[in-house]
Amino acid sequence: MSAFVFALGMTLMHFLWQGLLLGCATAAALTLLRNSRAEYRYLVACSAMLACLCWPALELWQRLASDATTAGTSFNGLPWAPSSFDEEDGWFKLRDSLRGIVGLWALCAAALALRMVAGLMWIDRFSRAHSTCERHDQLRWETDLARLAQRFGITREVRLRVVDTLKSPITAGWWRPVVLVPASLVGGMPPQLLEALLAHEMAHIKRHDYLINLLQNVIETLLFYHPAVWWISSRIRIERELIADDVAARQLGEPRRLALALSELERLQFSNHQLVQAANGGNLMMRIQHLLRPAPQAMNWKAAVAMLGMALACLSIYTEATAADKSASGKKPAVVNFASCAKPQYPEAAVKETRTGTVQLGFLIGMNGKVKTSKVEHSSGHTDLDEASRTAIEKCTFKPATKAGKAVESWTQMQYSWVLE
User: Fold this and answer.
1) Predicted pLDDT of residue 416
2) In terms of CATH architecture, what is 335-418?
């Protein structure tokens, strides 16, 4: 298994507790801001959604960029005895699990990505197609839309397309925005109410909500397996609709007209759920109440109990993920195979002069377990003793250091004491 697959698998697993933590913090913040302006709640939810992307991305980058070398291990003397190289069963089980997790994640993310691309292609096809309404009606609504865009301070051209198969208005695009309107809505709703709905779409274009919604869909695609991501994303869409309603109502000067238009949508049973990446969402009745008579919201203690349960689950998952990370991703140092080593021979001159001492050596162990180079890190005080130690121990073979189950080069230290008996 490659280091990237391992790092990605551990990152996805750690996001289980990270996402729960972000979800709990977001829920607490939104609860405190429940009677504040929708803009504040929107900012909190967007920040949480961005954190859901940045936190695992930063962790993945740190895992991939971490040092590939393993810290050396000192040995006090050399007990010239064999050492076994038993593998850890737990590591192999975790490695296989991570490979399966990453494979399943990639498959599901690819399917969701294809779904998102299909939605974008759907928008592009209808934005390029000719409107299905009569020519004079098309010109009329294009003129009204241009007038609304001017009132909102939008300098770019805003296109309008009337589509038969559409069930609710959709705003798409940023550089070349287009408003897709259902043909049944054009013929079945009073013009002044449809104008109010178009003002709502102008608010989305003014605020560049299409881009934010597109980023949301990307994050939902990558982190689809975490319910906290979907919940935060739904709160973003709810608050975004309330903000667009407020902006449109201020420009129209008639909150009641926009409320009537939303009521008409409710009566006609138009759906807000579309395959495409539209800037829609939110509950119509809640939006109507927000426009006409916003009421203070009381604290929901049942939600607080649920948040406490989520916090406990977050702590449990964090403990499990951290334990697995420490056992699996920790660097394992090189281990000498003492059976392969030859005991250093005492130099004859040193024996005659009764020279003793302790030398500390450093060895660079290759991925094949062989010594690539060596150096004397702390001399015994006698050159011949140092060289005799280094020459003999260089012939030892090692079990190479590993990182994420993959053999890596590493420096290790060994110490040998020369004593005359």
Assistant:
1) 79
2) 2-Layer Sandwich (3.30)
